[in-house]
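Q: Convert this sequence to structure tokens.
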Amino acid sequence: MKLCIPTNWEGDLIDNVKDPGIESVYGKLQSDVVGGGRPAFGLARVTKRRAKEHIEDVHQAGMRFFYLLNASCMGNKEWTRRGIRKIDRMLNWLNELEVDGIVTASPFLLQYVKKHHSRFRVSISAFAHVDAVSKAIFWEDMGADILTLFPTRVNRDLTLIREIRKHVTCQLQVIANESCIQNCPIASYHANCVSHAAQSDEALGRFTFDYCRLTCRSTLFSDPANFMRIIWIRPEDLHVYEDIGIDRIKLVERTMDTESLSLIARAYLRRSYPGNLFDLFTNPSKSLWQHKTGYFHKLKYFFHPFSVNPFKLMQIRVMGRDVDVTIDNTKLDGFLDHFEETSCMYRSCKSCGHCEQYAKKAVTISPTYREETLKEYQRAINTIVSGDIFRI
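A:
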């Protein structure tokens, strides 16, 4: 089983992570006509020339490069002459760069690439929500080479993964260190929001304040057991997924600095991390946004006085603070065993209690800090849903 890791386009990344256990690297420009899974404001600005050099470095290190064209919604631009010309120009440029494959959530884009740019391997994004045997068969029959299983539904349903593996021959991939909660009810809406926030011709210049992330964080802080309900896969548990047929482990987050990405990659390569499991998740202090962007970058993406009140927008800056929690990974042995026979699809958390039991052993968070931070998240959400943020 190999790793698929993100790139932040930094010059020292490839030298820091180069290892035979890493099969491929994925990334995209800050924005493009298709868009992708992260808003443009949080990504590194990279020129096409620098992208070319970086992809050459990836290939020289013996790894493949996959370019993300994985927006869950393109605003129907793909059904216009102008839109398809732009998509085709993008694919021609990726071919010139000798990119090995693309990642998409669109059945149309999958078929278009296979017909007109068949050199590329195609990996299906988590945004396609592959969470059933019939869906996996559908995408494979269309020509998909790799399926990324929908993490919030599938990661802890080991029986489902086994069944999918029985019915398809293409490669299967799971995301190991995403910070979404099991069976997230707003995953589809969030995917659409961030997809438009990475598209180059959006009317608001890729503006977003990520209401969904605020809602997610508020949910996390409402109950310490929710930190156990995040759909992480421990480095120590990779063998379980390997044994049931997973071919690749995908890691996030391409918004992170090189030091953080290197730490995460090493933990999963070694299949061991004896510290705070939350170290392997994204946090604002690890982001390029914090280290590499200045006043004018923030002004470009967030100053839209005719659309939102900039003073009210400041009230949701709680999103820029780290989550201060410890998940003691040494106390999580045996946690995954529960899911060998149990699916979260058919039980409520109240009737189960498994995550709550392990949270008492492994999760440490200051009650005062948790309560105060939860109030800040709720105030920020209220600023949005009350409509105040849209009024001058």
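The beta strands are 2-6, 22-27, 64-69, 101-104, 121-124, 146-148, 171-175, 248-250, 326-327, 363-364.
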